[in-house]
UniProtKB/TrEMBL annotation:
<dbReference type="InterPro" id="IPR016571">
    <property type="entry name" value="Spore_coat_assembly_CotJB"/>
</dbReference>
<feature type="domain" description="Protein CotJB">
    <location>
        <begin position="7"/>
        <end position="82"/>
    </location>
</feature>
<protein>
    <submittedName>
        <fullName>Spore coat protein CotJB</fullName>
    </submittedName>
</protein>
<keyword id="KW-0167">Capsid protein</keyword>
<dbReference type="InterPro" id="IPR024207">
    <property type="entry name" value="CotJB_dom"/>
</dbReference>
<keyword id="KW-0946">Virion</keyword>
<dbReference type="Pfam" id="PF12652">
    <property type="entry name" value="CotJB"/>
</dbReference>
Amino acid sequence: MEKERVEMLRRIQEVEFACIDLNLYLDTHPTDKRALMDYNSYTYQLMMLKKQYESIYGPMTNFGYAQSQYPWAWIEDPWPWEIEY
């Protein structure tokens, strides 16, 4: 199961990078419809991937960015940044 967790985190990182890259591009090319469509597509994928990850492994972030199942899951380890790749 640990392999699937790492693979899911890597996919989240890949999609998140695409969102950041497209965000920066759109800052200088705001009328590029194709880039905006790609950005929206990647943003949706990112939301779904994070939701899927959190439903299996618990919250990725805290302070109101992700809901938690009972019992409070934020204290469960390893936290996403502690996983060895």
